[in-house]
Amino acid sequence: MATFVLIHGGGGSAWDWHLLVPELAGRGHDVVVPELPIGDSSAGFTEFRDTVVTAIGDRSDLVVVGHSYGAFTAPLVAERLPVRLIVLLTPMIPEPGEKPGDWWDNTGYRGTEGLSEEEQFYNGVPAEVVAEAKAHGRDQVSAEWNEPWPLAARPAVSTRVLIAREDRFFPADFQRRVAAERLGVVPDEIDGGHAVALSHPRQLADRLVAYLP
Q: pLDDT band for position 150 (50/70/90)?
């Protein structure tokens, strides 16, 4: 049994994983779903990391999954706890010392002009789930946006990058290039859009479990 630690993306919450959690639990694994303190204007990367570490408690055999902006937080956990595997899911892959606010220009991100929020984030997600999503979004006013990412080097932990083929927010070609430039890897791919945990939870659970040695 592994412990999957699921870290939500920007403006998100634990709800973003609510369809994936039972899929992982049904496969015999423990699941931890922390809520980052994104509504606290004084909270930065240290508080993000500590929130996750506290939620984990004394659990072990950790697989830390960082979705989208959560990829800035996921590697920080390995600074404090023994982590078995990091999975960066449709991620913003940070460079040491990089401010999140600078990531967009640094990676050459071109934006999604002309697409609605629903089209960017929720393509492929059932309509009834999309209708619920707005009630679970949170304003992100935390301080880490202008903080340099605190790691001097990436943690010496096995890391997988998993992207979604139909992602409209971070298109697959963009993610393939960034993964190659920043990690020197070819990412794995899964059907679905940016919110793949809401559109393809069963398939995502299968992929995550398959990563376990």
A: very high
What H or E segment, with its residue span, contains residue 66?
strand 62-67
Residue whose C-alpha is closest to residue 19's, from 86, 54, 67, 73: 67
124 close to 193: Cβ distance less than 8 angstroms: yes
> Do residues 194 and 90 make contact, with C-beta atoms less than 8 angstroms apart?
yes
The closest alpha carbon to 192, from 211, 210, 170, belongs to: 170
| Residue 27, Cβ density class (10 Å: 0-12 exposed, 13-18 middle, ≥19 buried) | middle
Contact partners, residue 56, CB within 8 Å, separation at least 6:
3, 5, 32, 62, 77, 81
> What residues contact 81, with CB distance under 8 A and at least 6 apart?
53, 56, 62
Q: 3-state class of 71 per DSSP?
A: helix
Segment 122-136, tens digit of pLDDT? 999 999 999 999 899
Report the C-alpha gap between 136 and 201 in whole angstroms: 18
How many Å apart are CA 20 and CA 197, to the nearest integer? 6
List the structure tokens of 187. Answer: 């990412």
One-letter identity of residue 42: S
Q: What is the pLDDT of residue 112?
A: 84
